[in-house]
Amino acid sequence: MTDNNGLGDHLTFRTIDLTKHYISGETVIKALRGVTLEIPKGDMVVLLGPSGSGKSTFLNIIGGLDTPTSGEVYFRNDRLSQYTEKELTLFRRHNVGFVFQAYNLVPSLTALENVALVTDISTNPLPPMEALEAVNLGDRASHFPSQLSGGEQQRVAIARALAKRPEVLLCDEPTGALDSATGIVVLRALQDVNKKYGTTTVIITHNASIANMADRVIYFGDGQVVDVKRNDNPISPEEISW
Ligand SMILES: Nc1ncnc2c1ncn2[C@@H]1O[C@H](COP(=O)(O)OP(=O)(O)OP(=O)(O)O)[C@@H](O)[C@H]1O
């Protein structure tokens, strides 16, 4: 699977001229129109752009949930865009934690049990309690989702994603359902995880102020990358206001 275009140690992803076309009846929707990008290992990256600009499509492709129409995706030294379905399943299982706007917790399981579900199928998991402590929820381990606030449930979802010790955390609108104060606590959990475990973190948001806590901001427009900015002084989530 390794070839000469491998990324070496400093990049988690590289995409080359990535396109994604969806066929809808007679129409072809060009969700991605040639995206060439690098995502350095350990970076916290924010994707910004108008609705329909291709952010989720891009995230789903690098996360192995979808495949490109053309172009290449490299994960470390591996050409992800040539993976079989089975290889993509293993890639997701071992390397990628997903966090979505919906928390998708199992209501009949406690916070700790929700996290432990994932560690059962991982090769080198974090102890579930350590994952909960990383998002500052160690004291809520025995609570059920219905006993937790939205922000706390989202932090359980982050702990669950983190518990398999993934290289990458991919987050699609993780604060989309939360008020700003709660959103900031969730962003604090993501920043703590990024710093403590060196997890490459990619966050889609509609909230431009969140970009100030990123190492790198990638702006999408009409299926393309229109700008990439490096931020040498990312701020802490508590300094963000929206
Ligand atoms: N499964 C699909 N079938 C058909 N069209 C799709 C599909 N998924 C996405 N699209 C289209 O591809 C384009 C890009 O969608 P995408 O969800 O990637 O944008 P986005 O930037 O994430 O938008 P949002 O911010 O609203 O979530 C849109 O025009 C969308 O309607």
UniProtKB/TrEMBL annotation:
Database matches in InterPro entries: AAA+_ATPase (IPR003593), ABC_transporter-like_ATP-bd (IPR003439), ABC_transporter-like_CS (IPR017871), MacB-like_ATP-bd (IPR017911), P-loop_NTPase (IPR027417)
Keywords, comma-separated and alphabetical: ATP-binding, Cell inner membrane, Cell membrane, Membrane, Nucleotide-binding, Transport
Record GO cellular component, one term: membrane protein complex
Gene Ontology molecular function, alphabetical: ATP binding; ATP hydrolysis activity; transmembrane transporter activity
Name of the featured protein: ABC transporter ATP-binding protein
UniProt similarity note: Belongs to the ABC transporter superfamily. Macrolide exporter (TC 3.A.1.122) family.
The organism of origin for this protein: Emcibacter nanhaiensis
Ranges of residues in domain ABC transporter: 13-240
